[in-house]
């Protein structure tokens, strides 16, 4: 086949599909001047709550804020302990710290997802929440994690990479006490800038969140609690509503692309393909393989014009910013083994069969 350049991610296809409707929606926002918590925000919140199968959705400024506010609204207080997986993006740990709690790290299973047994090992009397991270597009075993921690501990889903995913028929963002998600542009449901949301089935949590995101109150100059300023822009709500209507179709294309990769790469030496865990419906935010000689493979793909990524190259306990936790190599062996081998291949709804064949050919050549 002819040489091809394959970007790691390409947002053009999704933007082109909604461009005209975005222009019309933004014109209405400019006409009305309702830039903050305008009617389009309320409409998106209602639509996304219904999509996730929960009663409440509150838009916030970004995914990190979403997790912090979800933790605070779920009862996490300064000095508490919150268990998170060691292989997550740093924002998960930052959110715990911003809520005033202590980060407690646990190991994961072979599918990169928080291991309920490891959660149980790290549970103490000071644990008030656990954050299962739905990594790469599929959901953690939330029901088993909730069973492991018991009814007195909040389960706050990190749903930033799993918009539209299901576990045993239930959507991401609907299984825990609350869930924080990110609408960063590269997500399955991405805004045109930073944006996020919290979903919850609890009216009490939702009421607290509504205050926390808006300086501690829902009415002007009434401040019931110490809050912050983290509100979803009306402009972003316009974009998100248009994309939400197409999300399932775009996720279907991601699944088709994942199936194609599996067929092209099956049986390759030194390569471990990702799988969908039992009970899950994957939405393939990322397609992450494991390669014995990752550096060599990544260099070969780069030379062939194929964009790749590593999500994430260093576990939380081995990052300099978290050295104060006293973590050492060997603390979380599954996470550490995966971190040295993971490689993310190009994945986006508009990726073509020819592009995937080029990726596979380049990878198979080096393997």
TrEMBL record:
PANTHER family: 3-OXO-GLUCOSE-6-PHOSPHATE:GLUTAMATE AMINOTRANSFERASE (PTHR30244:SF36), TRANSAMINASE (PTHR30244). InterPro entries: DegT/StrS_aminotransferase (IPR000653), PyrdxlP-dep_Trfase (IPR015424), PyrdxlP-dep_Trfase_major (IPR015421), PyrdxlP-dep_Trfase_small (IPR015422). Signal peptide: none annotated. This is DegT/DnrJ/EryC1/StrS family aminotransferase. Keywords: Aminotransferase, Pyridoxal phosphate, Transferase. GO terms for molecular function: transaminase activity. The keyword Transferase applies. Belongs to the DegT/DnrJ/EryC1 family. The keyword Transferase applies.
């Amino acid at each position: 086949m002819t040489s091809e350049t394959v970007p790691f991610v390409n947002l053009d296809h999704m933007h082109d599909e909604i461009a005209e409707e975005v222009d019309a929606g933004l014109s209405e926002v400019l006409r009305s001047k309702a830039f903050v918590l305008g009617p389009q925000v309320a409409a998106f919140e209602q639509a996304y709550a219904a999509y996730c199968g929960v009663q409440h959705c509150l838009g916030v400024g970004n995914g990190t804020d979403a997790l912090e506010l979800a933790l605070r609204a779920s009862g996490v207080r300064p000095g508490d302990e919150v268990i998170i997986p060691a292989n997550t993006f740093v924002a998960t740990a930052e959110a715990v710290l911003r809520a005033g709690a202590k980060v407690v790290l646990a190991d994961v299973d072979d599918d990169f997802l928080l291991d309920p047994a490891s959660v149980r090992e790290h549970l103490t009397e000071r644990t008030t929440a656990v954050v299962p991270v739905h990594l790469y597009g599929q959901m953690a075993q939330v029901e088993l994690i909730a069973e492991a921690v018991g009814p007195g501990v909040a389960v706050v889903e990190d749903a930033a990479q799993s918009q539209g995913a299901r576990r045993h028929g239930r959507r991401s963002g609907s299984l825990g006490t609350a869930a924080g998600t990110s609408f960063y542009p590269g997500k399955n449901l991405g805004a045109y800038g930073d944006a996020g949301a919290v979903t919850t089935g609890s009216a009490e949590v939702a009421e607290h969140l509504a205050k926390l995101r808006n300086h501690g109150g829902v009415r002007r100059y009434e401040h019931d609690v110490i809050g912050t300023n983290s509100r979803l822009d009306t402009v972003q709500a316009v974009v998100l509503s248009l994309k939400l209507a197409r999300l399932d179709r775009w996720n279907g294309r991601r699944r088709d692309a994942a199936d194609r990769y599996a067929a092209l790469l099956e049986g390759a030496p030194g390569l471990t393909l990702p799988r969908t865990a039992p009970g899950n419906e994957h939405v393939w935010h990322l397609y992450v393989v494991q390669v014995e000689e990752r550096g060599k493979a990544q260099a070969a793909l780069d030379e062939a014009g194929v964009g790749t990524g590593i999500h994430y190259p260093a576990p939380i306990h081995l990052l300099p910013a978290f050295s104060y936790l006293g973590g050492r190599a060997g603390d979380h062996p599954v996470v550490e083994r995966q971190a040295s081998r993971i490689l993310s291949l190009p994945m986006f709804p508009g990726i073509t069969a020819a592009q995937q064949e080029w990726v596979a050919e380049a990878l198979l050549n080096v393997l």
